[in-house]
Amino acid sequence: MPGALLTDLYELNMAASYLRRGMRADATFSLYVRTLPPERGFLVAAGLEPCLEFLESFSFTEEDLAWLEGHGFDRVVLEAFRELRFTGQVWAIPEGRIVRADEPLLEVTAPLPQAQLAETLLLNQITLHTTVASKAARYRLAAGDADLVDFAFRRTHGVDAAMAVARAAAIVGFAATSNVEAARRYGLTAAGTMAHSYVEAFDTEAEAFLAFAEDFPQRATFLVDTYDTLEGVRAAIETIRRLHLSDGLGVRLDSGDLDRLSREARRLLDEAGLGQVRIFASGGLDELRVEELSRAGVPIDAYGIGTQMGVSADAPFVDSVYKLTEYGGRAVLKLSADKATTPGRKQVFRSHEGDVIGLRNEDLAGERLLVPVMERGARVGPTDAIGNMRERFEADLAALPEGAKRLVRAEPLDARHSAALASLAAETREDARTRAGLPANDVDG
C-alpha cells in the first residue's frame, strides 16, 4: 500500500504545526461529492477498501523521515511523525451503494494530525473508484441483458487506474475483465479473444482461426473483421465445423455497422446450426451507442468496453471534497462563497420518501447508510466481498426512479437536510462569523 509521503505537502505542513502545538483533539472530516457531473442521476460509492488498507498500514519509514529532514522538517516534528499511526474511527457508506450529491461517503474521526494526513489518499481513491463505478453503471443500464466485459486496461491512466476500473466494473455487474492481474487479485473472470495482429501474422484468416481454435478449443472467440466481416464469420463457421467445436464459442465484431453486421452474422450462424455461438461487439463504444443497439434489439450477446469507461470520458472526475466538520467537540464549517460546508458528524437516512442527511445521533426514519468500518485504527469486520457490493448495487438500482436512471436528461435526486442539521448549521455559521469578526447575519461578500 502507499506510504505516508503519498500526500500533498500542505498536509504535512499542517500536521507538523498541529503536533508542535499539541493540537491532538479528535477531529471529524467528511468526504462527499458536492455536485453530480452532467447527465448523472446518481453515483456509485466505491474505493473504500483501498482507503482502509492505507489507514491500517499508515506510518512513516526511516527513508521517509530522512527525506523530510532534508526538506525543512525539524527533529521535533520528525520524532512525532515516527510514532504516528492511525488510531481513529471511520464510518462509511458500503461500496456498491447508490448515493447522491452532498451525502458523506465516509467520515473520519481521529486526532487532528492523523485525520488531516488521511485527506489526500482518501480523496484520490474515492474519487477514482466512484467516478469509474458510476460510469460503468451507465453501461449496465444501457446493455439490457447483454454481458459486459472490461477492456479498459490499455487505455486507462496508469496501472493503478486499470486495477480500479476492473474492480469498479465488477461491482456494478460486468461479467469479466481482460485484465489478468485484476482477475487474479479480485477473484474475477478473465476474458480475452485475439487481436487483428494475430490474424495478420498468418497467411490466411482461415489458418489463423484454425490455429487459435486448436490451441484454445474451449474458449475460441474469432475476431472476424480484419478483412471482411461476413467472410470472417464464414471462416469461423468452417473452423468450428472442421474441429467439431461446441462450447465457449463466439465471433467478435470490432468495427463497422454493428447493427447490420450482428444481424447478418446471427443469420449465418443460425443457418449453419450454430445457435450457441455468441456474438461479441467492441470498438470504442460509449454507453449511448450501447443503449441504441440494445433498444434496436440487435443479437449481440456481450460488449467489450474499453476507453470510454476506463477514463470516464464524458465526466472524468467527481467534485469530491474532504472537510472538517468538528474539532475538539466543537462543530465547525466554512463560509466561503459557493463552497460553504455543514457541521457535525452525520448520518444518511434512506426511506421511500427519499434521503435525509442528518446528525449521527439523530433517530430518524429509514435505513442508516453510514456504518462503522474502523474503530481504534482497526477494521470492524472482515474485508467486504465484491459479490456483496454487487448485490447492494443491484438492489439500489432497482429502487431508483426511472428519471434518475436515464442516460440523457437524467433527473438527479436530492438529499434533504434534517431540521437538527439545519439548526446546527445556522448556529455554527453565527459562531464562525463571530470568530471571524464579521457582523451577524451579514451577507458574505
What does this structure look like?
It is a single chain. With 445 residues, the chain is of the alpha/beta class. It is 41% helix and 17% strand. The protein has helices spanning 9-20, 48-57, 62-69, 75-83, 112-117, 119-142, 159-171, 180-186, 196-201, 205-215, 229-243, 258-271, 287-295, 307-310, 386-399, 402-405, 419-435, and strands spanning 26-33, 43-44, 89-92, 98-99, 106-111, 147-150, 176-177, 221-223, 250-253, 278-281, 302-305, 320-327, 330-331, 346-351, 354-359, 367-368, 371-375, 378-379, 415-417. α1 packs across α4, α2 runs antiparallel to α6 and α6 packs across α7. The chain starts with 8 loop residues before the first helix and ends in a 10-residue tail after the last helix. The model has no long low-confidence stretch (mean pLDDT 96).
Q: What keyword list fits this structure?
A:
six-stranded parallel beta sheet; 445 residues; 17% strand; elongated; seven-stranded antiparallel beta sheet; 41% helix; 2 domains; TIM Barrel; alpha/beta; nicotinate phosphoribosyltransferase; 17 helices
Q: Kindly report how far apart the N and C termini lie.
A: 44 Å
**CATH topology description of the largest domain:** nicotinate phosphoribosyltransferase
- Per CATH, the class of the largest domain reads Alpha Beta
Tally of separate helices? 17
Q: Which range best describes the helical content: under 10%, 10-25%, 25-40%, 40-55%, 55-70% or over 70%?
A: 40-55%
Structural class: alpha/beta
- CATH architect. name of the largest domain: Alpha-Beta Barrel
Name the strands of the widest sheet in spatial order.
13-12-1-5-3-17-18
Could you give a short account of the major beta sheet? Answer: 7 strands, antiparallel
Mean pLDDT rating: 96
